[in-house]
Amino acid sequence: MQRFARDDLFDLAHSLLTGGGLDPEKARVVADLLIRTDELGVTTHGISMVSYYLPELASGRMTSDGRHEVVTDRGATQVWDGNYLPGHWVMTHALDAAMARARDTGIAAIAIRRSHHIGCLSTLTRIAALQGQICYIATSDPSGQWVAPYGGVEPLLTPNPWAIGYPGGDHPVLIDTCASITTVSKVREHINSGTQFAHPWMLDAEGNATTDPNVVNATPKGSILPVGGMDHGHKGFAMSLMVEMLTQGLSGHGRVEAPDRWGANVFLQVMDPAAFAGAGAFEAQVDHLNAACRDSTPVPGRGPVRIPGDRAASAMAAAETQGIALPDEVLTRIRNCAQTAGLGFPAALA
Ligand SMILES: NC(=O)c1ccc[n+]([C@@H]2O[C@H](COP(=O)([O-])OP(=O)(O)OC[C@H]3O[C@@H](n4cnc5c(N)ncnc54)[C@H](O)[C@@H]3O)[C@@H](O)[C@H]2O)c1
Ligand SMILES: O=C(O)C[C@H](O)C(=O)O
């Protein structure tokens, strides 16, 4: 692990993306959110994603030009077509639109079809939470086949993450979790480093739980188990159906159309606590519960209790004073991209 200056990582991500054909403004938005993700400590979905986006830009599967289209607009609800534009850029516009409406109406939702990958969800929900709003985001990829429905063996679903961010005292509460027990990025990381998972998080095509990430490359293909694993995976499967319903059902596009390219359907909902019992009442309840949880007697080896978002807040504070920490596998990936593009690589901070 090494630490780097924020501006250096931003410049590298921006140069790689513009070099890959993205216009400078979209590249600025994407690079900024990717670096923010690394600052939050979610390094699987930070600058390393550039290495996956560049081939998408080169092939035209990630679109560079134009804007999203508004398909329907009923005030509190909208459907957008993201035209496979970079997901971070589409989501920045969707957040602005939903937050503005929620300030008026108390609640606003946008279902987006055909965006490209949106990265780390809590990097996005945090933006609204810092402005006093509650933000829910769910996403799925209707072309993805990584997770089997609980009780079946064929992978049909994606990790199907959902996240909710809200004001929580010193820093936002950032709940951000997949419906699967781990992510595609973690599976790729384990395959690349030749390591097994510590727990049986995968399912082979015969229906056996295994620690081996390589089952996703076998024929027939294995899968990632849902949250709850082999014995209690009905819980993850339920979450997965919820995410698919919100993202594909409400956007009116998905597995029925069977897209054959990497993409993202998204459901975004913003709620203004002031429009319910009032922002003060909301904060009093949230702060009280968070404090009670944090004050719990720690379970040996597990505690103390951490509220989701606490680790991100510490990572951000450390990034601010010491620079952004990147693990070796991310460095290798991004160094290769920089080398291929003929760009220099920033010096690590001492
Ligand atoms: N865009 C996409 O298609 C996509 C797909 C999958 C995952 N992702 C991103 O990948 C990232 C990782 O997802 P994940 O499911 O592996 O998350 P995870 O398992 O690392 O964390 C899940 C949740 O648990 C919380 N948490 C973790 N340890 C905790 C503890 N000890 N105590 C209290 N809370 C704790 C985290 O804050 C988070 O809210 C997320 O940021 C997600 O948005 C994106
Ligand atoms: O990489 C993907 O296709 C989805 C997601 O980012 C993941 O890591 O699971």
From TrEMBL:
Pfam families named among the record's database cross-references: Ldh_2
EC number, UniProt record: 1.1.1.37
InterPro entries, per the entry: Mal/L-sulf/L-lact_DH-like_ah (IPR043144), Mal/L-sulf/L-lact_DH-like_NADP (IPR043143), Mal/L-sulfo/L-lacto_DH-like_sf (IPR036111), Malate/L-lactate_DH-like (IPR003767)
Organism listed in the record: Mameliella alba
Source taxon at top rank: Bacteria
Family to which this protein belongs: Belongs to the LDH2/MDH2 oxidoreductase family.
Key words of the record: Oxidoreductase
Protein name: Malate dehydrogenase
GO molecular function: L-malate dehydrogenase (NAD+) activity
PANTHER family in UniProt: MALATE DEHYDROGENASE, OXIDOREDUCTASE-RELATED
